[in-house]
Amino acid sequence: MSPFGKFLFCLTLFAAWRLSSTLFAEAPPAPGVDSASRNASCVALAREAGVRAEGGTGSNFVMSPLSIHAALAKVAAGARGDTLNELLRFLGSASLNELHRAAATKLVGRLNGIAQTSFASGVWVDRMLALKPEFTAIAASRYNATAESVDFVSEAEHARQRVNAFVADATNKQILEVLPPGSVDSRTAVVLANALYFKGAWTQPFDVSTAPFHIPGGTTVRVPSMTTSESQHIAVYPGFRALKLPYKNDVQQQAEF
């Protein structure tokens, strides 16, 4: 039997902007933002990720809306003006205060309380750009994130290894190198990285066996396969099919497309 499904999510964003001198400038309410707009944003991200993954041709990818939301929310905490307004609109919040109140802290706490689940988030800023105590406090209290100063200008490789070590620790050593060599240099100003590690048991485990697989051209090979005779939640749409797999202990279901 193979009862476990293991999924790793990691988001890394690079930024070359200067941190705003006003970290918590209040934006005017963004009209018409609600849960529907949040869902639309997630769908748009999924569509874009699917198109970009290996050119959008026969590739598998996994995305975490929570991870993306947490990263962009931290960017919003250090933005102002039009940039802040655009981020708030995309994230479905009318103001920065509302965004902080609806932060992922509670959900992150629940995730970290589930066996073999952990969420970690960090911001690394070049030491030439001083981190404000207000920003560090918001990152820690609302987004369960660490905010650190590093030296990208003269010690970019050390900073890269520091980020990789953070992600490796957060994912039980499953993601060892989120930043490949050469991905940061003296021009890097800010790195945001989120990592979500989850290993759960399916409610209805699959049977694992070696079964014949027919290759185009008539050749047949035997490969490891997972099979089940249980009823499943399956939907068929133009261009793709969807399968929903529930986990034990009421953990959020995974959707496979």
From TrEMBL:
It comes from the Eukaryota. Keywords: Signal. The keyword Signal applies. Transmembrane segments: none annotated. SMART domains: SERPIN. One of its GO terms (molecular function) is serine-type endopeptidase inhibitor activity. The keyword Nucleotide-binding does not apply. Residues 43-256 form the Serpin domain. Residues 1-22 form the signal peptide. Belongs to the serpin family. This is Serpin domain-containing protein.
